[in-house]
UniProtKB/TrEMBL annotation:
It comes from Streptomyces goshikiensis. The lineage of its organism: Bacteria, Bacillati, Actinomycetota, Actinomycetes, Kitasatosporales. GO terms for molecular function: acyltransferase activity. Pfam families: Hexapep (PF00132). This is Acyltransferase. InterPro entries: Hexapep, Hexapep_transf_CS, Hexapeptide_acetyltransf, Trimer_LpxA-like_sf. Belongs to the transferase hexapeptide repeat family. Keywords: Acyltransferase, Repeat, Transferase.
Length: 256
């Protein structure tokens, strides 16, 4: 290949590399600058937003924010929809419509649609793509398109400490107790007691904890052992290396 073609190819690769770095740097800057916090609310004026709460950029659809209250240390992922009321610019009265407790995490691409009150308790974690709504379409009139019929609404209450898996759907009127686990893709309606695991569509209880009997049915794996206080990262790496060497030695012994 002629020398000038080699030079042109090298310059083309260099320009592409520099453009890629600039694009990534610019996007990181936009993510930092566009994030919503109590100190940097941008155009959003929530009824309350606690310290260290952060809405990642880009945000999804957000309206009715004067009737939305976000607690402390909440993490709202990218493209999360938070709405209060059926449409923007409505007067929803003196009380909040959507309330998130402290430490709530909502994964990216999730939707929380509060036409009537939705409450999410402290330290509830939602995976990506979770859908929580207090309103459902009605289909009473067989001659009218479903989308044109007046919807039905019912409050939703999610207790503290819950875990909602990827793609879970929480329907109007649902009431989840404390530390409820909702499996990925489950569709929940009605009441779920404390310390229950629900799965399926419609969701049903597949495991439950009672003080007298523990978990029913029993857990299939042992509970994870917490890392003791005071253990350093260096000690953890050394322990992991030791465990790997012991496992290799055991495998070698089995081969012999």
């Amino acid at each position: 290949m002629p020398k000038n073609q080699n030079t042109f190819s090298s310059l083309k690769v260099l320009r592409r590399r520099l453009a890629s770095r600039a694009a990534h740097a610019g996007w990181r800057w936009m993510q930092q600058a566009g994030a919503v916090t109590a100190q940097t609310p941008g155009r959003l004026r929530f009824g309350a937003i606690g310290p260290h709460t952060r809405l990642a950029f880009p945000q999804g659809t957000v309206f009715g924010e004067p009737w939305i209250r976000l607690g402390d240390h909440c993490i709202i992922g990218e493209q999360v929809t938070l709405t209060a009321g059926m449409m923007p610019d409505l007067d929803l009265g003196p009380e909040p419509v959507l309330v998130l407790g402290n430490g709530v995490v909502i994964g990216r691409d999730s939707h929380v649609i509060a036409d009537t009150r939705i409450t999410i308790g402290d330290d509830t974690f939602c995976g990506p793509g979770v859908y929580i709504t207090s309103t459902n379409h009605s289909y009473d009139d067989p001659h009218e398109p479903v989308g044109k019929q007046w919807p039905r609404s019912a409050p939703v209450e999610i207790g503290p400490g819950c875990w909602l898996g990827t793609g879970a759907v929480i329907l109007p009127g649902a009431r989840l107790g404390r530390n409820v686990v909702v499996a990925a893709g489950a569709v929940v309606r009605g009441e779920v007691p404390d310390h229950a695991v629900v799965a399926g569509a419609p969701a049903r209880i597949v495991r439950r904890w009672e003080p007298e009997t523990g978990w029913t049915p029993p857990l299939r794996t042992p509970a994870p052992v917490p890392i003791p206080d005071g253990v350093t990262p260096e000690q953890l790496r050394a322990l992991a290396a030791l465990t790997e060497s012991e496992q290799r030695a055991a495998e070698a012994q089995e081969t012999v």
